[in-house]
Amino acid sequence: MSDFHQNGNITTLHNLRTQTLENLEYELSTFAQTRRITLILPSLFSELEGDALPHILNELAQVPYLHRIIIGLDQADAAQYNHACAFFGHLPQTHTVIWNDSPRMLELGARLDALGLAPQEPGKGKNVWSCMGYLIACADSAVMAIHDCDILTYDREMLARLVYPVANPGFPYQMAKGYYPRVGDGKLNGRVTRLLVSPLLIALKRVIGDRDYIDYLRSFRYPLSGEFAMRTPMLPDLRIPSDWGLEIGVLSEAWRNLAPKSVCQVEISDAYDHKHQDLSPEDASKGLSRMSTDICKAIFRKLAADGTVFTPNVFRTLKATYYRSALDLLEGYYSDAKMNGLSLDRHREEESIELFAENIIRAGQVFLDNPRESPFIPTWNRVHAADPEFLSDLRAAVTADHEEYA
Q1: d(Cα 20, Cα 161) in Å, to the nearest integer?
Q2: Cα 95 from Cα 83, distance rounded (Å)
Q3: Would you say 10 and 117 are in contact if contact means Cβ atoms under 8 Å apart?
Q4: Can you give the pTM of this predicted structure?
Q5: How far is CA 229 from CA 34, 191, 235, 346, in A?
Q6: Could you give phi then psi for residue 241, rounded to 5 degrees?
Q7: Contact 193, 246 (CB under 8 A)
Q8: Which of 59, 73, 102, 121 has its CA 20 to 30 A from that of 306?
Q9: How far is 290 from 244, CA to CA, in rounded Å?
Q10: How far, in Å, CA of 227 to CA of 222, rounded?
Q11: At 365, is the secondary structure helix, strand, or coil?
């Protein structure tokens, strides 16, 4: 059974196993009569051919309270888009497949590029941003949720628990972040959270001193989860990072825009597993190596924006402090895994720590060398100010793609 601990910074909503899915969905259906709920699914075409997404759709088909599902489709040609429309066509809810690589969408991207407002690189951040733009253009939902399309252990209770805090009109929460244990195949997973983010935040507190932002991030049990829900008035002013720092970036935006009492984390699953990224120590542009660098940059940028001064000496000290903190935490993870009958390869774990330590220096150097770097996709408020017709044209392009290609 779950604990009921509160950390005092943000509210934690636990699963005490005293509420049924049937009751949750009944309440959500009641809320949805006046507070429509939309789900965004950022997807690669390759995920349509995997094991996770077909099961996710079977679960979603049973959800009674969703007003709309928006699927952002990346890395697909015309035939694959057509196949995707048929694939998602089994959903009984109103749904839309946004073909992000269509000629019309590329034309819209060129229009933004001419204004200096185009996303600088493809990926999940751009996908989510486009889906949010479409949702803003629809202007008919009060709540938005996002989760990944590679969750092998998915069931629809994850979604119900994720959206409930922001859908309930009696709750004060504007954003809810999902959390869960990362255990699968007899192993303790979640390497980047365990071996990078947690010890890095401990090290930052030791090196630069107390910061409310650091305490805020440390309050989240799984800050890198891809599952979150929010009330839609937040969306037009939300800054979406264009790199692997998406999850940390969204938490930072909640910190910037909301009071802590408006943010919560919610336990959504007992067992969560999805595809695992390679460590990729030989190529810093891929896998967990790239992810760790982007996450570090996202944290450094936010602290700098709040007045922290970083220098090469600070980053060297931070690396050494991180390394010691990570090894200390590893001892605890090993004991936890052993007591629960799980395997944990200490050699590989220490290899990960060594790589992450090097990437702290790499991220710091990139941060210092590129003071003018703009890592965020422009907000939709800024896009609307520069091109008031863009959102309606985006919605029209999505409709036209469906009519022509599907």
Answers
A1: 11
A2: 15
A3: no
A4: 0.94
A5: 17, 24, 11, 35
A6: -65, 150
A7: no
A8: 121
A9: 8
A10: 10
A11: helix
Residue corresponding to tokens 């979640």: 190
CA gap 279, 282 in Å, rounded: 9
b/e sequence 239-277, b meaning 16+ C-beta within 10 Å: bbbbbbbbbbbbbbbbbeebebebbbbbbbbeebbbebe
406 residues of the chain, pLDDT tens digit each: 468 999 989 999 999 999 999 999 999 999 999 999 999 999 999 999 999 999 999 999 999 999 999 999 999 999 999 999 999 999 999 999 999 999 999 999 999 999 999 998 888 999 999 999 999 999 999 999 999 999 999 999 999 999 999 999 999 999 999 999 988 888 889 999 999 999 999 999 999 998 999 999 999 999 999 999 999 999 999 998 876 778 998 999 999 999 989 999 999 998 887 666 667 666 666 788 888 998 999 899 899 988 999 999 999 999 999 999 999 999 999 999 999 999 999 999 999 999 999 999 999 999 999 866 667 899 999 999 999 999 999 999 999 999 999 8
149's tokens: 């399309």
Three-class SS of residue 267? strand
Q: What is d(CA 182, CA 3) in angstroms, rounded to the nearest whole number?
A: 17
| Tokens linked to 374 | 């703009």
| Distance of alpha carbon 103 from alpha carbon 181, whole angstroms | 41
Determine the Cα–Cα distance for residues 132 and 112; give it in Å rounded to an integer.
Answer: 16
- Give the tokens for residue 29: 């259906």
Nearest alpha carbon to residue 264 among 201, 171, 200, 160: 171
Read out DSSP for 293-308?
HHHHHHHHHHHHHTT-
Question: 209: buried, middle or exposed (CB in 10 Å: 19+, 13-18, 0-12)?
Answer: exposed
Measured at the CA of 362, the angle between CA 320 and CA 367, to 5 degrees, comes to 110
**Of 210, 207, 199, 245, which is closest to residue 226 (Cα–Cα)?**
245
Q: How far apart are CA 174 and CA 35, in angstroms?
A: 13
Residue with tokens 């192993």: 187
Lookup result for tokens 């090290």: 203
What's the Rg (C-alpha) of the chain?
Answer: 21
Backbone angles phi, psi at 118, to 5 degrees: -80, 145
